[in-house]
Each structure stands twice: as C-alpha cells, then as structure tokens.
Specification:
28% of the residues lie in helices and 23% in strands. The protein is built from 9 helices and 12 strands. An 8-stranded mixed beta sheet has the order 6-7-8-3-9-10-12-11, sandwiched between helices. The protein has a 4-stranded antiparallel beta sheet with strand order 2-1-4-5. α4 packs across α5 and α5 runs parallel beside α6. The chain is globular, with a radius of gyration of 21 Å. The chain starts with a strand and ends in an 8-residue tail after the last strand.
Length: 329
C-alpha cells in the first residue's frame, strides 16, 4: 500500500466478451477498464472525469466488485477486495459503499424508503430492531429529510429527495469509502447544489473518503482535492485539482477543460480542436488511444502505450500524465 492510502487500485482490468453467431462464440472483447491504478487517501475526494463511455462507471462498479474484475487488485487497508472470498467480501463491503447515478431506478418501488435504508442493517444484522429504527431516523435527519417520511414509497418523492435517500442508504453501515457514480447528473441544477453541499457536509462530519465519478468538470472542481482523467478505459492524467485545472499536461485533459463554458461572453480563448469521435473499446487504436484525435500526435504516439510519468512543468509531485509530448505541450 502507498503510504497514507486507505484504498489502492493496482493494474485493474475489466473486459467483456462480445459474442455472436448461432453458437454464441466469443468474437471480440470490450476493454472497458484497462490497466488502471490509483490510490485514495483517508478523508479526501478523488474526482474521476471523462467522456460518456470511457469506463468511469464500470471502474467504480469493479472497484466495488459489483462487476468481477478481469485482472488486478483492489486493496482496502491491505485487504484485497478483488480476490476476497464471499465471506471476506461480505465483511469488507461494510467499509465501501456506493451512491448510484439514477435516483429513480436505484430504489425498489415496492418497499418504503425506511425499509430501503434499513435493509443494509438487516442484511449485516447490526443492532436490535429498536437500534435499527433509531439509525434510520438518524440517517434521514442527516440528509435533510424528516424521519416521519420513512413510511412513504419512492414515487412520492422528487429526484433530489430520492437521491438523499440513496445517500442515507449508502451511509447506513458507517463506511469509510463511498463511490459516488454521477450522483447529481439526473437532477436539476438547483437540486444538484443541494446534494453536493450535503456530500461535503457529511464528509466533514463523518470523515468520509469519496471516489466521485462525473463528466461535469465544474462539479469535480468544486468537490475534489485530486482529479483523475480517464480516456477509453485508461487514466491518462492524475494530480491535484489545482495543477490539473491550471496546467493540464495531457492534450485530452486540455480539450476537456477548454470545452467548459465561460460565464463571461466577452472572454475569448484559443482552443485546440479535437478531431473525430471516441474510438471503439473493442478495437482501440495502437499506442496512445487518443492519438487519432490529438492535434499534437506524432509517429511515436502510435507505437507504444505511454505510461503515467511525472508532469515536468508541475510543482505537484503527484501530478502524472501519460503523454510522450507533455513537456512540449
């Protein structure tokens, strides 16, 4: 484990077979997550950003082991989630929980929200019936909902209220790490702010560690201490929020940041155009996967997959980028 790390992901891969024909034979492989490594420090928020389809949600679900990893390790305080037995995984899952993207489909419409929040406590057999009831009241109050609403069903709540219920449910077991998968993308802008502020408050009160997955760079900038940029299943840049947003070292990170709208219409900035569409994860390009779209690409970019290396221009010693031309850019 890296010093001071609460969780460490090493060389994680998640591949899906593509089958076809009358016999369902495997024809290809979707490389949704490919050789991803990062660590989480206790109490921090690591923002994971990238275009839709780049593998962010799959990475989160694989870390949680809702998807079985193809290869690699996921270490929580030295214990390997990726290779844990069913009994070991059951115990470890108390420490790592998830907030899902869609507040409408993540709650069972046939049970009340009180039952939904209490369910993790029932499964893990924590506390007496009275203690579980008190815990549900406590969690509803913590996320800004009245305990008196726990006998209502999900359809009686707005999207923002449902997401608050999802947050409360994820905290029922007092986890150390919460993986938040696009938790505000389905919400109105005004409600997004409420949920984000709630996540910040809960982190400060409970000492939570977040892996915050989003395609919205403004949200990630507000919430995260460190940022990882993902492209076609790989992390291409990682570093502190300040270093990534002020001086991105990878052309893809730069393109993402340049795509963020500026509130002042009088301001102008020079944009480097990104060509084409995201390649298929079934047949990714050779070398650097971004090279077909990169305005800075040279022949060497097509030869070998670049490794994450220190960003020479940055004062952040943890700032890494996977680009052989980062020094020139």
């Amino acid at each position: 484990m890296t010093e001071m790390s609460l969780m460490e992901v090493r060389n994680l891969r998640k591949h899906y077979p593509v089958r076809g024909g009358i016999f369902g034979r495997q024809r290809d492989t979707v490389k949704a997550v490919e050789d991803v490594s990062f660590h989480l420090r206790s109490g921090e928020t690591l923002g994971l950003v990238g275009e839709s389809g780049c593998g962010k949600s799959t990475l989160g679900r694989t870390v949680m082991r809702l998807e079985e990893p193809t290869d690699g390790d996921v270490l929580f305080e030295g214990q390997d989630l990726a290779h844990a037995s069913a009994t070991e995984l059951f115990a470890l899952r108390r420490n790592v929980q998830m907030i899902f993207q869609d507040p409408y489909s993540s709650l069972n419409p046939r049970i009340t929200i009180g039952e939904a929040i209490r369910e993790p406590l029932d499964i893990h057999r924590l506390g007496t019936t009275a203690e579980r009831r008190d815990r549900v009241d406590e969690l509803l109050s913590a996320v800004g909902l009245s305990p008196t609403v726990q006998n209502r069903y999900p359809h009686e709540f707005s999207g923002g209220q449902r997401q608050r219920v999802g947050v409360a449910r994820s905290l029922a077991l007092r986890p150390r790490v919460v993986i938040a998968d696009e938790p505000v993308s389905a919400l109105d802008v005004s409600v997004q702010g409420q949920v984000l502020n709630l996540l910040v408050e809960l982190q400060q009160e409970m000492g939570l560690t977040y892996l915050f997955i989003s395609h919205d760079l403004s949200v990630v900038e507000y919430l995260s201490e460190r940022v990882a940029v993902m492209y076609l299943g790989r992390i291409v840049e990682i570093g502190s929020r300040e270093s990534i947003y002020a001086a991105p070292a990878h052309p893809y990170s730069r393109a993402l940041l340049e795509s963020v709208p500026i509130a002042d219409p009088r301001r102008r900035r020079d944009r480097v155009p990104v060509l084409g569409e995201t390649p298929s994860a079934v047949n990714p390009p050779s070398g650097c996967a971004f090279h077909p779209r990169c305005p800075f690409a040279v022949d060497a970019c097509r030869q070998a997959v670049p490794k994450l290396e220190p960003a020479g221009h940055s004062t952040d010693t943890d700032h890494m980028a996977a680009c052989i031309r980062q020094g020139e850019i």
